[in-house]
Design a protein that fits this description.
The chain is mostly helical. The protein has 7 helices and no strands.
């Protein structure tokens, strides 16, 4: 699952950076959300939903956006399940109706904040699952920019032993 994700980010990440004008960290935030939505490019259709309902493709487009995605594919002669369909519609939205998601990411500096901003403006998911989206985003960033500091999980705070109070218990 992660090998497929890394491979596709390696192909489509630089294209997204070019086509939408995103820095690598923003492209990683986008792919973090995409990775969560489509299980690292392994799920075309939202699990547990009838075939005519639920989300589809890279971003699990639902309702009106699903209909727009399907119409886009028909208009451009693209197979619904193709990467070309998922990628081109993503770019179409990010440079059009969903450009606010790009602006929202630009207002933040950390990968985590960019992931959350993209989710809020673009995905608008019922279940946010930001921590899982961030894991995918770190993986995407490591594919786009190996060694980038944001690819590492933040360190856990060190557990400190309480300092013994020398005066405690002495009267």
């Amino acid at each position: 699952m992660t090998a497929l994700f890394i491979q596709k980010v390696g192909v489509y990440g630089p294209r997204l950076m070019h086509d939408v004008g995103l820095p690598g960290i923003d492209a990683a935030a986008v792919f973090g959300n995409v990775g969560h939505e489509c299980a690292g490019f392994t799920a075309y259709h939202e699990g547990g939903q009838p075939s005519r309902k639920g989300g589809v493709s890279w971003c699990q487009w639902t309702n009106d956006r699903r209909h727009l995605f399907e119409a886009w594919c028909r208009q451009h002669g693209l197979a619904l399940t193709s990467d070309a369909a998922g990628y081109s519609f993503l770019v179409h939205e990010l440079t059009g109706s969903e450009a606010g998601a790009v602006a929202a990411m630009r207002r933040h500096s950390t990968l985590e904040a960019k992931v959350a901003a993209f989710e809020a403006e673009f995905e608008r998911a019922r279940v946010k699952a930001i921590s899982r989206r961030v894991v995918w985003a770190r993986l995407a960033l490591s594919a786009l920019h190996p060694g980038h500091p944001a690819t590492a999980a933040p360190p856990k705070p060190a557990r400190r032993k309480p300092i013994a109070d020398k005066h405690r218990g002495h009267h």
